[in-house]
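pasting for ref
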Amino acid sequence: MANTTWSKLKRSLSSKFSFRSAFKSSSSTTITSSVVQADDAPPPSAAAASTPPAPLPPRPFSSSISTTTTTTTTSLSSRLSRTFSLRSSSKICAICLRSLRKGQGEAIFFAECSHPFHFNCIANNVKHGNLVCPVCRSEWKDLPFQAPANAFDPQRNAAGRARVSPYTNNARPILPESEHFSDDEPISVVPVDSSSPPPSQTLTLKSFPEYPALLASDCLPKFGVLVHIRAPPLDDISSHRRAPIDLVTVLDVSGSMADKMALLKCAVSFIIQNLGPSDRLSIVTFSSRARRVLRLTKMSDSGRTNALSVVNSLAADGGTNIVDGLKKAVRVLEERRYQNPVASIILLSDGRDTQRCSPETRSEYLKLLPASICATNVAAGTESPQATFPVHAFGFGVDHDATTMHAISDASRGTFSFIETIDILQDAFARCIGGLLSVVAEDVQLKVGSVCPGVQIESIPSGRHKNKISDQGRQAVIDIGNLYAEEEKEFLVYLSIPESSAADGQERSESTPLVAVSCSLKESVSRNIVQAGGVTVEIRRPQALSPTDQLVCLEFDRQRNRLAVMKAIADAQSMAELGNLEGAKVLLAEQRSALLSTASAQAGDGLCIWLEAELREIEQRMVNRESYERSGRAYVLSGISSHTSQRATTRGHTTSFIITRGEGNSGLDTTTSYETPSMTSMVSRSQVLNSASATLLDKSKSSIIR
């Protein structure tokens, strides 16, 4: 009896092991496929939870697997036959080159020309203006369009909070991150075009004394001179004169970004589409930890395709670790084998650093950053260099840490923009890259030297641009850095001027030179350091002043107003941080009154009009503590960043103020103070694209209704 029972048990076990052996190759294939496609698979239903899942068909790239699996069962063989018949009919998305197999959790769009694509792939393609079939190039009338992120979202719980699902993102296989970042793509050799004049020959220098004349007998301890520099326009230079850029985008993909990912992807895709073939892009993402998801890659056609695919695969989850994101971005730039002339970092976040930063440690926060973006973090006894990689920070929403992000951008000589509503993120990025993609001069330095005995340089309120006065006040240098095409910088230089004297038997001269102004720069392509032409500031020293001699120079006056407003805003912000909102509002109101009474404001100067509007806006955002915490602080810090660097930033929900630059009302209209034509053009391009997308959405809705 025991032998009989043992024989039955042996036969039963043998049968089971035989079945497992026959099915072994199929199950191994199933595991491989499920790992790659996990993010695309639909969630299991409750009914299916009690039954074992059917094995997935093998990936079509492995012919050796098909040979093994066809020896199992008839049903498995027929399933494999269907798999290969699908492959033979070229069911592959022409955009991402992935399978178009049904049942993988992705919508499939069949165009009127009968070619199929993943809906997300083709909708993103259409959003960027491509209205023809990528395969046969036929024009489409019925266009796919994705609803914006603020449309109805089934991915929300009962509390209305966004949740992240692993089944809705266009997942790519997560490859292991390289240990070293010296895998950057080689740069293109840009030919030097000698047919057009270099920037040094078209750069403009001007100077204006505070008053045209000063009594010969007067001795002034503080007499002002305005120094003005303007970069050449991009139209006057060959396209090869623009400096190629290495750009690293550091993107917040923490859980709080879940309902903003669609617009974030569109904004980053806009950057990708507008970079040139000589520019290189790397993408770093961070949540609880940072990860480089795209190596430094040339934006050729294939590079763009790869970058867009990476962006389309991003998903939100985890906490916020800004420091790790910036450290990884610096590694990308420090470890690169090749270097484009311009390197910059774009940082985007909607929250506070949950891994490192707290109110008690915020003062120590900057010490955690690499010296390449925070020049003060160098070893003791080492000379503090200029920051190497500017960080252009974008904080959006009410929860981001404006103080920290402004401090990071300020330390690195970048800019801080406040994005109040996510729908203007693309325009904000456009304004930034419009400047970065128009650098025509680098390492620009303004040099001011006394040319009259007794005339000394006392001070230069140059904002964030460092200056150095030497030789007992006879020489000064202002470090400007890079200049965008048609970008203007203006600085006030205060001098001490002695009484005009003459030797015995000689008459006093009617004209006295005060200082000479010159400029040095590095040309973007040739990398040569050249000297630009100089100007000399002169005033008359008569025995008596005429009425016109006592009229202040309007160009000088408007810049003095800008500095006064900048100081008032900074002082008001300090008072607001201490809880004295009433005192801050009184200070801003007093500065408005002082501004409107100046000569340049009375003459209708456009910059003064813009400054007065800015003061009113800040007063409104300081109406109470809640308003200041919600948007006032970020708005003010973004304004301070703009004024101290004399460079455009995005502030609040819009910055489409119209101001007039130039003398009186005779200048050219432009949007946003400090905005260059290249910035304006790029913002316009973004807005046209958004308008076209809105039109496509309306057409899509209309076709659905019909």
